[in-house]
Here is the input.
Amino acid sequence: MRLAILVFVFLGTACATRVQMTNSRTLSYARVRSLVVGSSTEGDVQGKLGSPTSRVVSQGYYTLQYDDPASGAQRLSMNFSSENNKLMDILWIPQEDEREYSLDGAKGGFVGASFKETHEDDSNPHAHSVGGDIFIDQKAGVTIRYDSIQKVVEAIAIYSPNERIPAEEKPEAKAPYAF
Here is the structure.
């Protein structure tokens, strides 16, 4: 009987799937920046960051989302092409203790980038007005959303500049990310 229990326990643990949980050490901007838009795969991402909090399939692409393990807040979202399973774009949400939470820190991560600043007003009457600035370098493939009132970076989007079509050139084209 003991032997049967030991064999059952051994087989049960041998067949169990090991789930690699995301923790604050694996979920870092440096690891995210080591991913390459257009060539990194879902396997590459999970190898560097662990298992995502969620995976959502949409028409033409799918999204991996990583939440902060301590707060449960979204930290990272990445879209992949359903056609070739390659990384299409990244949305990183920095935290207060990270260098890229400041505008200079966020911009400093893109050496040689030339950002164009635009201002965005929140005209939703049902939400408190935050307003903000968007810093875009379409050649480098990066957009930074900056809260100009609280003086913090809200999000950094990294994408392939060759894959995006400016809205004014093709209004019916919709990008997976919109600030």
Summary: Residues 1-24, 170-179 have pLDDT under 50 and may be disordered. The chain has two domains: 19-93, 94-171. The chain has four helices and eight strands. The two ends are 62 Å apart (CA to CA).
